[in-house]
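Support request, please re-run this one:
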Amino acid sequence: MNESATHSAIETVVRQSYGQIIAYLAARSGDVGGAEDALSDAFLAALRRWPVDGVPDKPEAWLLRAALNRQIDSARHDQVRLRSSEYLQQIAEEEQTMATTIDSFPDER
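Re-run finished. Output below.
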């Protein structure tokens, strides 16, 4: 499949379904900006894959699934970042406490 067909299919989806896809993604996540970012990433993935794999039978569904996957990945990354941040803060506080209360660290070898 050529890039011209890919661009044509994406242009058609943008004209006909962009608003609906954004509305669905935003309603699901509560984040309009995140929905737009996720759909933008889906369009970028389509521009890379469709010239090689061909335009899918239902391009809107393909883009919606790709955007939903992006939102899920983003939510997972946020969860990991939040947990890591709390854990690192706890370690920093423990180290600060130990540094001010203990004259020397014990050798536990």
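Helices lie at 3-29, 32-53, 59-101. The chain has a mean pLDDT of 89.
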